[in-house]
Amino acid sequence: MVRIANGRSNMANASARAKARKASLIDSTRMRQLLQQGPDTIGTSIAEFGYRNEIDLYAGRFTGADLIEVALNHNLDADFDSVLGFCQGRLKGMVAVYVDRFSYQNAKTVLRAIHSGASIEMVAGQVLPEENLNNSHWLDMVRNCNTLGDVVNAMSGTPWGQALSKLDADSNLQQMEDALDTAYYSTALASIRGPDGHPLLERYIRTEIDHRNIINQFRGLRQGIIGENRDALMIHGGKINKAALKAASQAESNEALLEVLRRAPSFDDTGFEEAIQASSISLDPVVTLLQTQRRVMMRRFAHLNPISAFPVIHYIESKVLEVQNIRLLVRGKSAGLPDEVIEAHLNI
Question: Who's near 252: CB < 8 A, 6+ residues apart?
Fold first, then answer.
């Protein structure tokens, strides 16, 4: 678990540096300009926006959309290290609580690779490129493990291994991924509660848990999961209490589920009816609505607390969004999707 140290923080300096980095991110106007380009041209353009080193690093092995995607991932990983590097004391611990989620994502990637039987050559070549030295220990697990049980043993002594070791030996991949999600949020909340934490950061994490649970409720309903089985998908620690979530798990329609959620004081139903109506094919409209709510919350916290962990975390969140938007844009272009369809899915 990430522990928030009591050492001296450099809030003012780190906040200023994070704000400067955020100002240099690709804004909505430039993102729409990228939308008018092809995948190869996009690569040339984003090189000028801070991705040149990574594009040059992978250019000998990848082209087109694949090149851009691995460059984006490597740049994001390096950016996390850089930001944590200029944070000190309690500030570094609070920022690390947020960044730690991406390690759990890598643990899931390893589990999925072993479960699907992916070769080390494929994983090292496409998913976790070996040019990124941060991927070394993850690749070692893929290289040396043959079963999900082997992965659990290889993760022994890590937060991911501790979470997985509590499961039954015959647990499936979905149960393992759910356990990692639960473990991340449990350790994150434990780290930021108390005198060394920050109540607004706890509020944000709890809101994020609520949003994960809301999505899981709608997804479970779509898959025909009702009652205890759907309730078992819930992550504890959010602001929506267990009784409300249990009642939501009994709902048998989107309308009934929404009515139950509306009884929870912390649930913001603004735009939800429209999002549900637009979710006939996928839950993307609901996911996008909740993401927008969290971005508004984070932006407000960063504005109201200009010298705190929030400007730093807000920058990290904005950087992740930039990478997601470019990845979606390039993949959409490669698939031949119309520009208006791609733009509708961009978060700009």
Answer: 221, 226
